[in-house]
Amino acid sequence: MPSSDFETFLLTSAAGAEIKGLDLSVPLSGKIVDELREVWLQHGVLFFRDQNLEPKQLLHVAEYFGEAMPYPLLRGLEGFPDITVVSKMEHEEVNFGGIWHSDTTYLKIPPMASLLYSMEVPEHGGDTLFANQILAFESLSEPMQRLLSGLTAINTAGNPAIVSTRSERIQDSGSGIQAEQFEAEHPAVITHPETGKKALFVNRAHTQGFQELSEKEGKALLDFIFVHQVRTELCCRFKWTPGTLAFWDNRSMQHYPLNDYHGHRRIMHRVTLRGEKPFLKLGSE
């Protein structure tokens, strides 16, 4: 049901909605928060342009929807340990997290959601892609759905594909914790705890194989999934402007920050919200 307090504009049928008419620097009513959560669950990621959020205000917005948690591999912003600075400077060639992924699925309890607020953005490039993993699962054949629903995915923070995108940041502002310390097993297909829908829960950055399959079998299956789950019809693409907040559901969405703005800077503040242990409820819709 449309809200009388804000307007919603869809990016694509698959994912993403831009919210207009709200100033997030002032308190939101419980009614508005509930309506925003409903839209968020439906579309996976919300975008709010033209906001002016100091770190304390960003945390306040995050806490409307969950409990903030620190990012395990980097130190937080001074005075705000739950805010991570995600940046690429003019002289750097590699952007942070520049590969398709869902945030920190190498944790035993991965985050529910993430918020990303743009401080500085390049004049061109630097867009972020999002892919709907509920639709990715639903668009598989029934035999493939059954196969994946019986598998356990092995996730690690030490995958070379993602390590290379964060090595410079860890050198500059690392938490002192080694990425290799983080490994977790989760169902390859999960039940979304709020909608009851099933979603693929493997990603190119962190998933290395399946407990039940040999390495060769797992690689062949992952090669297929990694292409399937980010097909164009499952995605939206968002162009950032300064003062924009994105809020996405890590349980149902993957994202990919593009690295196409060399020689320019991009500085963002990120907050991650605590989640719960992923599960698959057999027979759920």
Helix amount: 10-25%
Total strand count, please?
16
Question: What's the domain count?
Answer: 1
Structural class, by secondary structure, is alpha+beta
The number of helical segments is 6
Average the pLDDT over all residues and give the rounded result: 92
**The named CATH superfamily:** Clavaminate synthase-like
The CA-CA distance between the termini, in Å, is: 22 Å
How does this structure look, described?
The protein has 285 residues and is an alpha+beta fold. The protein has a single domain (7-273), classed as Clavaminate synthase-like (Double-stranded beta-helix). The protein has 6 helices and 16 strands. It has helices at residues 30-43, 55-63, 133-138, 142-149, 160-173, 215-228, and strands at 7-10, 17-20, 45-48, 68-69, 83-88, 113-120, 128-132, 152-156, 183-187, 189-191, 198-200, 207-210, 235-238, 245-249, 253-257, 266-273. Strands 1, 2, 3, 4, 5, 6, 14 and 16 form an 8-stranded mixed β-sheet that branches. A 3-stranded antiparallel β-sheet has the order 13-7-15. The protein has a 3-stranded antiparallel β-sheet with strand order 9-8-12. The longest helix has 14 residues, at 30-43. The radius of gyration is 18 Å and the shape is globular. The two termini are 22 Å apart. The mean pLDDT is 92.
